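Ex. 9. Protein: Zinc-binding dehydrogenase.
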Amino acid sequence: MSAWQFTGTNEPLVKADPEIPRPQAGEVVVDVKAAGLCHTDCGVMVDEGWLPLLAKTPITMGHEVAGVISELGEGVTGWSVGDRVGLCPTTAVGAPGFGFDGGFGDKVVLGAEALVAIPDNVTMAEGAAGTDAGMTSHSAVVTAGQVKAGDKVGIIGVGGLGMIGLKVAVLAGAEVYVAELNEDVWPTAKEFGATACAKSISEFKEIGLDTIVDFAGFNTTNEAITTVRRFGRVVQVGMGNLQADISVRDLITNAVTLVGSNGGTPDDVKGVYDFIASGQLKPVIKEITFDEIPQGLEDLHDGKVVGRLVAVRD
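Predicted C-alpha cells for Zinc-binding dehydrogenase:
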C-alpha cells in the first residue's frame, strides 16, 4: 500500500508504505478511487495552527474521498463489498486525513455511518468532490445561509467550493453576485448562473444583498459584514486566514448575523449527489493522477486551479 503522508508544517509530503488497514467492528475498508485536493490541505501544509486538529503525525492526508467497499467489519449491515461510496468527513467517525489516515492512499478504514451511496451516473471524481466541497457548499447556502427563492446572494470566492455554492444558490431560486479575484473564472461563474462578477463583494453594496457566503476567508470577512444589507446574514466558510479583523460597529449597528459554517451532514452529501445525478449540477473538476498530488497542492496554493482538483485511479 502506498500513501502521501504529512510529516510536519512546511515539509513536503512523503511517499510512504503504511500497513494495509483492517476493519474493526462497525467499520469498512474502502479502496480509494478518487480523492479531492482542498485549500484546507494547503493550509495544513504551511500553518502550524492546523496541527492540533491532526490525530497523529505522520498522517495520510485527503479528506474528500470516493471509492469502493472492499471489506466489511463485524456487525456492518446495509452495505456490501463492491458498493460505490463517498465518505462524509463530518460525522462522529471523524474526518479522513485528520482523525485517521485519509484518501491520499490506496485504502481508508472508517466507521460505516460515514458512508453515502454514490448514484450510478455520478463519477468517482464527482463523488469525491461531493463529499467536502459539495457538502460544505450545500450546507453553507441552504442550512447556514437560509437562502430561498427571491433572495439576493453574494458569493465570495468561486473555487471548488464556491462554484458549487453558486449553483446551489441559483437552484434555490436566488439572484447571485460573485466576488472573485481571478477574472478568468468569471465566464464559468456566469455559465453557472451568476448575475454579475466583480473583484470585491463591496462593489455590490447597493444591490442590498440578503446573504453573503464567504468561501475564501482571505481578509474578506469584513468586506462581507460591511456590504450585506441591514439585518442581513454573513456565512463564513473559507479559512484562507485563521484570523480576521472585523468592524464591530457595522456588525452591531446593521444587526448583521455572522455565522460560521463547518461542513455539513451525510444528507448534504446526498443532496449534492442528487443534484449531480439529475444533471442540474455539473461540478468543474480537473482530474490528476495520485502521483501528481504534491504538485497539485502547490498549484492550488498558488491559485492556478479552476474548479476542484481531484486525483483519480483507473
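Check your answer against this statement. The mean pLDDT is 94.
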